[in-house]
Amino acid sequence: MYLVRTILLTACSLFASSLLHAEEPTGKVDARFKQAKDRTFRAFDAEKEQTWQQPFFFMQLADTQYGMFTGNKGLEKEKELCQQAIAHINRLKPRFVIVCGDLTNATPEQARYQAQVAQYHQDFSKVDPEIPLVCVCGNHDIGNRPTAKSIAQYDANFGDDYFSFWVGGVFNVVLNSSVLRDPSGAPEVLQSQQDWLEKQLQNPQTEKAKHVFVFQHHPMFLETDDEPDQYFNIPLERRTPLLAQLKAANVRAVFAGHYHRNAYGRSGAMEMITTGPVGRPLGKDPSGFRIVKVQEDGIEHQYYGLDDVPESIE
Ligand SMILES: [Zn+2]
């Protein structure tokens, strides 16, 4: 009897620990998702990366949005699409990967949130450890009306909501666009981000960058910089002064997601690039991602459906 009970107990604890492994990220996974700290991204050497080295490319993903296909009931379709994207990432070996928000469909206060975060962590921990994985917060990650609490929950799982980093002579700024869209629940966060951004853009080092890029979840605009306010853009009240500030700092391009299809526009010389979803599409563009080639004097970028990705990148 004692023996049977011991075997049963051992079997139960083995089962429990395997469940734990499926649900919870390991310490190593944790470290990968805690790189955005102290308003920078630790995987990149802050000193060395300020110098231009050679042309490179990175991959921009958006809206993995685990749970969207089934209204938070299942994660199978997103899992399949993300695993397909990750296989491309590991084959192509970009300089870095950035996921521009709506990592999950549930918001932090919803019941299915932690399970979706766990699945995201589990899948994206398979990205080659040599390839930095930068995560950006979207409206689903911190809510349509973000608060200090929802931002703290995001921070616990993915790190800072806004930060900057250098890669090979290029300066990159990641913004929390949900507070730009609706600051009413966290006006102090919008103010701190604004003060911080001003310092970042005025830093004499920024002027020496080959390019300055901005990454965020919401597009500033879809096609024209003065288009009327709507669900998918930043309200003119905050959009107009921010665009002026970015253009004055020679920002070359803003990269976003949120629209679940591609869109493109310009404000002066600055490109506004909206990228379709890895997860569920809302238009004719299939699930996919963007490849951005960075040269000393310019950039080239193209969106690829997951079934249409080249074998390698020149
Ligand atoms: Zn969104």
Structure explained in plain terms:
Residues 1-22 form the signal peptide. It is an enzyme of class 3 (hydrolase). It comes from Roseimaritima multifibrata. Belongs to the metallophosphoesterase superfamily. CPPED1 family. It is a single chain. The longest helix is centred in the first third of the chain and has 22 residues, at 2-23. This protein has a single domain, classed as Purple Acid Phosphatase, chain A, domain 2 (4-Layer Sandwich), CATH 3.60.21.10. It has ten helices and 13 strands. The radius of gyration is 20 Å and the shape is globular. By secondary structure, it is α/β, with parallel strands linked by helices. Strands 6-7-8-9-11-10 form a six-stranded mixed β-sheet, with helices on one face. 35% of the residues lie in helices and 20% in strands. The protein binds zinc ion. Residues 102, 138-140, 217, 258 line the site of zinc ion (ZN).
